[in-house]
């Protein structure tokens, strides 16, 4: 969308009542009035989400797919859409760009759905439920998340589900019926997963001790990194590399979710996760190491974990704790987990690890003498040499391992 609220450009002469179908100079509208099918028109607008330059002529199949997915035809220029939604052109442009869509001049490329989306966001601001800045953040976070999801779905579905039913058919020709079948099911599923995630996130906020903890929270943050990935990229074919990365991300996502953590993001050869409980973060780290070590197709893995105050924003995490976890990962040995002192103290406090092996032995001997069960620990900690870490000074790493005997 453009910030040109003067209405200059193609389709800029508006009827007094603002009806886009009465816009002067539109050959397509004239054809529609005569009951004829309008031919694809030259336009300065590519597909609504396209980041590349304009196509000389819109592809008829692309237009059909857009109408199928959006459930509405193109009717509005950006200026008309903003006016119909009752918002300023400037605010409409901010929302549009925040959702990740390009400026399209004054081409007639928007639909009734676009008007409704603008109206809803602006309505939340007018009602005082969201500030204007927060509404823009909502648009941006939703746009970024769904853009990646849409790209992944199209890539995956067209690669795995579109074997041409007849010789000579292209994947493009199969796209329309495939999307027609999948769209309603995927839409329902997307809403369900979003509600589930929203419920979980709301529950975590409600359990926060105070308002400050809702934004700045104490979390365990872990980075898991494939060792020697850069070398792999030089000797593996692109398809093989893609399969390896997908297998790694899938395994990591499954393990993080299964054990109660949250996958923050994936970076190809690295995943970032967080957990409210240090013991959960430790279990995830060791499971990742063990799982990857048992897969001959996977390179070695190393994990770094830190515990402390973390700032959360738009689904991501920031702060010194995150930086420290990243640095610990970079110095961790292969197939090993390094943690910081705060993390070590936390799992000692919760009883998941002893202060030292000597203390564990003393506690076991005392319990045996009294005829009681000795304390059990899931993890063991071994102090490593202190070393300087760029930007964070001298840190004390601890090697985290699993106690095989559980005592």
TrEMBL record:
Residues 23-33 have a biased composition (Low complexity). PROSITE patterns: GUANYLATE_CYCLASE_2 (PS50125). Residues 220-329 form the Guanylate cyclase domain. CDD domains: CHD. Residues 34-45 have a biased composition (Basic and acidic residues). Transmembrane segments: none annotated. One of its GO terms (molecular function) is adenylate cyclase activity. Residues 1-59 are annotated as: Disordered. Gene3D superfamilies: Nucleotide cyclase. It comes from the Bacteria. Belongs to the adenylyl cyclase class-3 family. This is Adenylate cyclase. It comes from Streptomyces ruber.
């Amino acid at each position: 969308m453009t910030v040109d609220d003067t209405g200059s450009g193609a389709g800029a002469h508006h009827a007094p009542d603002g009806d886009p179908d009465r816009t002067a100079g539109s050959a397509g509208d004239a054809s529609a009035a005569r009951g004829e099918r309008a031919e694809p028109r030259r336009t300065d607008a590519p597909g609504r989400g396209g980041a590349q330059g304009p196509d000389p002529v819109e592809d008829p199949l692309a237009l059909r797919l857009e109408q199928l997915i959006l459930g509405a035809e193109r009717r509005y220029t950006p200026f008309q859409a903003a006016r119909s939604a009752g918002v300023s052109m400037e605010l409409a442009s901010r929302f549009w760009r925040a959702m990740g869509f390009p400026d399209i001049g004054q081409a007639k490329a928007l639909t009734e759905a676009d008007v409704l989306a603008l109206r809803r966001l602006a309505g939340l601001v007018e009602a005082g439920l969201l500030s204007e800045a927060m509404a823009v953040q909502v648009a941006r976070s939703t746009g970024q998340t769904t853009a990646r999801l849409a790209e992944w779905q199209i890539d995956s579905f067209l690669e795995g589900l579109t074997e041409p039913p007849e010789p000579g058919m292209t994947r493009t020709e199969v796209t329309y019926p495939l999307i027609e079948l999948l769209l309603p099911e995927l839409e329902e599923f997307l809403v369900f997963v979003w509600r589930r995630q929203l419920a979980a996130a709301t529950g975590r906020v409600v359990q926060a001790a105070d308002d400050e903890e809702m934004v700045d929270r104490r979390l365990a943050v872990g980075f898991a990194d494939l060792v020697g990935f850069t070398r792999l990229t030089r000797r593996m074919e692109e398809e093989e590399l893609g399969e390896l990365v997908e297998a790694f991300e899938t395994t990591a996502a499954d393990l993080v979710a299964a054990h109660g953590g949250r996958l923050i993001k994936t970076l190809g050869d690295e995943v970032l996760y967080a957990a409210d409980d240090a013991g959960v973060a430790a279990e995830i780290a060791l499971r990742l190491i063990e799982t990857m070590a048992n897969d001959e197709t996977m390179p070695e893995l190393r994990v770094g974990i830190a515990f402390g105050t973390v700032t959360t924003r738009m689904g991501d995490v920031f702060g010194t704790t995150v930086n420290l976890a990243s640095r610990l990962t970079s110095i961790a040995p292969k197939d090993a987990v390094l943690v910081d002192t705060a993390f070590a103290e936390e799992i000692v406090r919760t009883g998941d690890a002893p202060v030292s092996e000597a203390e564990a032995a003393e506690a076991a001997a005392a319990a045996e003498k009294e005829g009681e069960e000795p304390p059990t620990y899931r993890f063991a900690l071994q102090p490593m040499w202190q070393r300087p870490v760029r930007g964070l000074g001298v840190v004390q790493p601890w090697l985290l391992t699993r106690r095989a005997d559980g005592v």
